[in-house]
Amino acid sequence: MLTVNSDTEDGLVNGACGKLVMIDYGKLQKTNETVPCRIWIKFNEEKTGRKARANFHNVMRNRNIDSSLTPIEPVIRQINTKSTNFKVERKQFPIVPCEAMTIYKSQGGTYEKVVVNLKKGMTRSVLYVACSRATKASGLYLIGDFVPPKPPERNDAVTLMFKTMRSERMLKFSLAFLEESEEKKFSIIFHNVQLLNKHISDVKFDKTFLSSSMISLVETWTKPSDNLEIEGFKIVHRRDCHDVRKPFGQIIYLKNDLKFENITERYEYSGKDHIEYSSIKVDDICIISVYNSPNSSFDILRRHMNEVITISKRFCDNIIVVGDFNINLKIKINNKFIEYMKSFGLSLNNTLNKDSTNAKTQIDCCFTNMKDVKSDYFESLTSFHKPIWIRKHKVLTKFHFDETEDIHTNMPFNIEDVITDDQSDTMEVDEKFVFERHETVDKNEQIDLDMSFHLEDLKVNDPSDIMEIEEKSSSENYEIIDSDSRKILDHFLLLLEFDNAAGTTQISSQARIIDDLIDKSPFVTVYNKDRSVKIRPKIEYSVEAFDAFYARTHTTGDGNCLYNSLSIIKIGSEELTHSMRLLAVNAMINNSNHFKTICRLLNYSFKEQLKRTATNEQWGGEVQIHALSIALRQPIYSYVKFLDDPKRVHYIPSDISTQDLINRFDNGTAGGHLKYIGYKSDMNKSSLCIHFTGIHYDALLPFSNNPHQFIPKNDIIDMSL
């Protein structure tokens, strides 16, 4: 068992338990004595020591060491003495033999498998601590004799509190659900589900969803091969992603005993504009389900709403429009959307200024011209958005669906017949779209380092003790958070046009979520990066002293390359690109006076730089790098190609030694490399390294977690906080 916190982020903490499998030996230089220099432990938890294993990847591969073993090296601790004339230090491995641990020692830890030795006299609180160390019930084992503890005293504080809560109902339940009734009433559930293929089981077992007549889901991210059937329902409309999963797609379920008619459906996915809708008639109601991307302009949304509502009104007078419109109704300037819907006789059916997302925005809502319709939000454990339930008070006529009957679907119409408010709003739209294909790394792609070791190996003990634990990927979590970041930035850009500062609270809240996610990510090296990130071959002038410590990635060049690079460095992939933009925007807002001074000295407009930082596919420069250094609390070093012309003052020989290269950087004669230091207190921290070609940024990934630091002399901003 470890007895110190050597790396809390990597799980190497006091109390971490495992099995000693192997010991490395080396010789002391002074005495030539052979002593243990490193031990290898197989920890009970697979995630423990993951970063340490990644840093020793090359050593383990060359020596054919089991990839599940974690290297542990001796630590030095100073012993406190009363004397000031000398100090005493002890160097030893931070471990002790451990057959078991006390319940008190286990507090704060969680384990896949736990055996609790029950004995007489154990209190309720001790039993709770012991049993709650297991992460799941199937991993909890009880041995010994269980003697039930005494019941709590009548005057016990916790008991009295529960009694009071049961009698006085101190907690007010704020969620609204579909009302239960024996009568058959027509009801709808609408939800931006975000990754339906991952959450289909949640929908299948949610009684609120199953009690509804219609389930309408958007942003499904589904593929045609996904099995999305729900018992008791038929699928009446489905749109899937092609090839790559994206924030796209729609599916509508209807109870098997209800008759329906597809009126129209359409999507537009061209450039930044992305909108999807469908209109389905059930009984005497047309239900229009909408998803509108935060990137779409209001004119595009208005044109499509005019189109679908006008067509639907040809078939029935009763209209319900429900969707994720990505227009925050809490902002007064967005009341123009409510007024626009009123022009069709449709009123907002939800309470205004009520949260529909976890970011406390109201972007999901329902409009209708019916007086006997009620709707509200309830909670979701799987999505950023809250579901909307809609219920018609009047009893719905029950229809039995005849499978042989021809149903009118996708009725053709002449777009010239649709009434538009303004002819300038009409535009030609290519209804075809193509999803980007994500490149994957070659399975054979490897980077080798020449390292030699003189160590003796010990045999591995009983392999039956090895526990296989499924590794969970954070990829989907990254995608959802980055999608939310993009939506928040787009809302912020809308507010920025009107000099409205209301969107800064959302940005600040999202920044905290991103920071927490990044903090949980392991240190990224060449060896544990995502497979989607490729390493560039050495085709340019190579300086071996530098290339031995850093490898240059092949970063996507889409105007986001700076943020793509920082995302790769922090989490190993480009999946937090928009989140990096949001962190930079948050830093500029929180330090606005500082950045206004910088912009004034560089002859920039602060507002334009803030807008550039928030806008998708807009390149970043010195202001944005400085903001990222503040946001990430680390220096950022930007390197350029080393000069290969011996006639130039800053020429660097390809075979220069590491120390000579460090000296050249210290003297400022290594080339036009730049450093950005957001906070003075972060000056000595390990840096985030990028490569700049003049038009494009790439990430520079280290081969280990403690690479040499080649610190550029020039600081173009030189205004650290």
Automatic annotation (TrEMBL):
Q: Name one GO molecular function term.
A: catalytic activity
- Annotated ranges, domain OTU: 550-703
| Pfam families recorded | Exo_endo_phos_2, OTU
Query: What PROSITE patterns does this protein map onto?
Result: OTU (PS50802)
Q: What protein name applies here?
A: OTU domain-containing protein
Q: Which organism is it from?
A: Rotaria sordida
